[in-house]
Amino acid sequence: MNRRTFVQTLPAAAVATACSRRTAGEREVAFAMWGGDEERNHHFRGPVAEDIRRRFNIRLRLVTVADTAEFITKLITEKHAGRTEGGSADIVWMNGENFRSARQAGILWGPFAESLSNIALYPASTRLDFGTPTDGFEAPWQKAQFVFAWDPARTALPAGLGLDGLFSWLRQHPGRFTYVAPPDFTGSAFIRHVLLAYGERIRFADFDREFYEDVAPAALKRLLDIRPFLWRRGETYPATARELDRLFANNEIDLSMNYNPAFASVRIARGEFPATVRTFVLLPGTLFNYSYLAIPFNAAAKDDAKAVIDHMLSFDAQLALSREVQSPFPIEVSRLDPARRAQVEALPREAATLSDSWLAAHALPEPHADYLIQFERDWQAEVLRA
Amino acid sequence: MRQSKPGLNWWIAVTLGGAAALGPLLLLGLWSVAEGWRWPRLLPEAFTLRAWSFVFSNHSEVAPALWNSTSIGLVVAAVSVVLAFPAARAIALHRFQGRAALFAFLMLPLLTPPLASTMGLHRTMLALGLADTVPGVALAHLVPALPYAILVLTGSFARFDPELELQARTLGATPARVLWSVTLPVIAPGLAAAFLFAFLLSWSQFLTTMLIGGGRVVTVPLQVAAFQRGGDEGIAAALAIVLITPAIGAAVWASRAFHP
Amino acid sequence: MKGAWLAAPAVLVIALLFVGGLILALAGSLPLSNYESVLRGSEFQSSLVLTVWIAAVSTLFSAVLGLLAALAFRHTAPRLSAMVLQVVVVVPHLAFAVAAIHLLAPSGLIARVLLAAGLLPSQGAFPELLYDGWGIGIISVYVVKETPFLALLCLTVLLRLDRGLEEAARLLGASRLQTLLHVTLPLVAPTLGAGSAVVFAFVFSAFEVPWLVGRTYPAMLGVVAQKRFMEGELADRPEALAVAVLGALVAIVVTAAGTALAGRRNAAV
């Protein structure tokens, strides 16, 4: 438990909310959302809040959390303390390990997702969250995919790069690549790609310990083999994705990576990356995942929360959000009528953001969460401390 | 006291000190308005007010954070000084068994990593319903602030001559009058220093506010940390300046108003 | 005994808020087998060594530099000097950690200036000052930050010294250095000792600065404890708490020893 979710790799700022100033009679729904970029926060405080107020007469209050795992811990502590009412949030954005620990600790209300009117728009595969069945306790909301960034103006990378290609490139350019130290989610995602290269059977399945013990040593060995060719000879790793970006922006390393496909565009807009930076995915694909919305057991406004979630899952809301923050459009496009499909295809994307179709064509599903934990542990024991 | 002309030693020390004081500020200031300050540029590519206009906009919610940080800081400082005053007096001026042990006990929070005790405190706060509240956070801030206040005031009281009070009593003053007209004025610099230290400690608290406040009580350090972890260099720098400037102002004011 | 009761409110507050919290944390770190596995683990051992090293070096440098600064400021514009020192003391450590990254990184400002001046052939030639095995980056931040703190402490004492003692020593024929070593220093020593003990304890249990500017492994104890606590499974928590408690114990022992030593020196005077 206490895994950091992908949302923590989204570009930055967790701006905390003010104490609520509730006007009499107004219903309120508190949405615990991890940081996200300012565009996302802005979008929610502005157009989305307005929309929800108009439709439901509900005030949407944003509770930006710095770390979803910490928020889950808080909920667990609240449950132990018997605080069954008046919780700090009515909707929580989470996935993966965080969802699993939340379910195990019994801190979620539900099931509710199957009865939402918009649930049919989402693929059946979303009923598994990193291998854990959602059982209707969370509703799919956003989609993310792991991408790499490089600057073609200063680094020449062969086209159609796969993991093997990347590793041989590393050997030819020692000291120009590194990854964030697991168990940070960005770093953990990178090493997971190495593990994935070893087994088709890893995907979807439950944690197969025998299988893991078969393939993990080879994957770890690969990471150990490239260690001397990493930045600082693999003796130390950047503590955060942000530090990785800083190294990349300042030409200490040649590649960066992130779970948000739009991360390079955001940084270009801020002036942190040069405008020539572009993103790519490794062939045959990179990890993608869905993130979800759930309702805590002690939410004060469960029915209102459900209504708001249903609205957030709707085509219009998703279209607007995807346009604003350039996140991959999460609804199953094949389930839309041609007019709507056209609207999706017309979504603008910055030059440094890969198209939704390219991403979807090179997408690998996440393995079961237990592979995550175990591999992170083994990485720390074998590769970090070598 | 004899004042000599500034020698080389002094110049070196002041230059280094000034550089250390101003360096980070200058750097942060530049970062808060910089656009495209990458290797190998000595200065940013361009300047922008993006970060600052965000900080001053409604969305950044800097104002509520400033309000929280200030009000909590003032309360913590006041309570710390009120609690520290008698304790410091006892330790400095009274002789009793176990005095050293008492002092060591009161200094404990200064010597221990805050994580362990704060997590434990959080459970108590939850049970009392104080978690996620401003009073809860203020109480948590007392833990590092009070010992500091005691430390400063003990030093002040150590230099205090009880004779002054005795003389005032002999002249017929009531204990209250003695306190007000004799003790407090003499101890005033120490009180101010203790107040300032306690305020600054509370002002810059991060871990305690985050754990006890649960993200609901927002203070300026929390915002700085969030943008730090998250990524926007410019906004993080601007917020850091918002965090540092009042502290510097308070320190400068205190050092001018009260001689060290 | 009456005097002791004056301290009662303060004692109550600290007992409830701090000791109570510590006890709960201790309770959370049991059973004792956790301590065993932590102590046996190579991570704790290498972390402890690194932490003691960084804390000791930082404290030593800060104490020496702080004392020298106080001696330099003593006779010259002490109020202005004190103000400058106050400003540094008041700025949070985080600001200095960020400044350190921007200054000391191979792509940082110092390297850029050297490059522009033709003194640095390339980024790769710049020494690795951050994230290194000796903790140079971490030590720099703490030395810059804690020197003014200790300097202020010493300055306060020096300004209140009875000059008579020193003047008497000079009259008796002692050189400036002898006066310094045998008269002035012993008078400053207790305060400097106590201040150094606080600095040591503070650096020992630090998190933010070593996390930002330090190596991934081995990391300082504060980082190990906090990371394990925040990033591990719930099942990891007791061990994380054990690390925190152990760290606290070591810090207390060392600072107590340091304070006792300084106190004994005081008695000798």
CATH architecture of the largest domain in chain A: 3-Layer(aba) Sandwich
Broad structural category of chain B: mainly alpha
Q: End-to-end span of chain A in angstroms?
A: 26 Å
- How many domains make up the 3D coordinates of chain B? 1
Strand order, sheet with most strands of chain B:
1-2
What's the CATH C level of the largest domain in chain A? Alpha Beta
Mean pLDDT across every amino acid position of chain B:
84
Helix content of chain B: over 70%
As residue ranges, the low-confidence spans of chain A are 1-24
Which architecture of chain B does the CATH hierarchy give at level 2? Orthogonal Bundle
Given the helix and strand composition of chain A, which structural class is it?
Answer: alpha/beta
User: Biggest interface and which pair forms it?
Assistant: B-C, 95 and 93 residues
Major sheet of chain A: 7 strands, mixed
Mean pLDDT of chain A: 85
Query: How many helix segments of chain A?
Result: 13
Q: Stretches of chain B where pLDDT falls below 50 for ≥5 residues?
A: none
| Helix proportion of chain A | 25-40%
Count helical runs of chain B.
11
What is the tally of beta strands of chain A?
Answer: 12
- Bin the strand percentage of chain B: under 5%
In total, the number of domains of chain A comes to 2
List the topology elements.
The complex is a heterotrimer of chains A (386), B (260) and C (269).
Chain A: E1 27-34, H1 38-56, E2 58-65, H2 68-80, E3 91-94, H3 96-105, E4 108-109, E5 128-129, E6 132-133, E7 138-145, E8 147-150, H4 163-172, H5 185-196, H6 209-226, H7 241-249, E9 255-258, H8 263-270, E10 278-280, E11 286-296, H9 302-312, H10 315-325, H11 338-345, H12 356-361, E12 363-365, H13 369-384
Parallel strand pairs in A: 1-2, 1-3, 11-12
Antiparallel strand pairs in A: 3-11, 4-11, 5-6, 7-11, 8-9, 8-10
Helix pairs in contact in A: 1-10, 2-3, 5-13, 6-13
Chain B: H1 8-33, E1 34-35, E2 46-47, H2 50-55, H3 62-93, H4 99-111, H5 114-128, H6 134-158, H7 163-170, H8 175-203, H9 207-213, H10 220-230, H11 233-257
Antiparallel strand pairs in B: 1-2
Helix pairs in contact in B: 1-11, 3-6, 3-8, 4-6, 5-9, 6-8, 6-9, 7-8, 8-11, 10-11
Chain C: H1 2-6, H2 8-29, H3 33-40, H4 42-74, H5 78-90, H6 93-104, H7 109-116, H8 136-159, H9 163-171, H10 176-204, H11 208-213, H12 221-231, H13 237-268
Structure notes:
Chain A folds into 2 domains: 6-144 and 289-350, 3-Layer(aba) Sandwich (D-Maltodextrin-Binding Protein, domain 2), CATH 3.40.190.10; 147-287 and 365-384, Periplasmic binding protein-like II (D-Maltodextrin-Binding Protein, domain 2, 3-Layer(aba) Sandwich). Helix content of chain A is 39%, strand content 15%. Chain A is built from 13 helices and 12 strands. In chain A, the strands form 3 sheets. In chain A, strands 1, 2, 3, 4, 7, 11 and 12 form a 7-stranded mixed β-sheet that branches. Chain A has a 3-stranded antiparallel β-sheet with strand order 9-8-10. In chain A, strands 5-6 form a two-stranded antiparallel sheet. Chain B is an all-alpha fold and 260 residues long. Chain B has one domain (22-257): Orthogonal Bundle (MetI-like fold). Chain B has 11 helices and 2 strands, in the order αββαααααααααα. In chain B, helix 6 packs across helix 8. In chain C, 79% of the residues lie in helices and 0% in strands. The model of chain C has no long low-confidence stretch (mean pLDDT 83). Chain C has 269 residues and is mainly alpha-helical. Chain C is globular. Chain C is built from 13 helices and no strands.
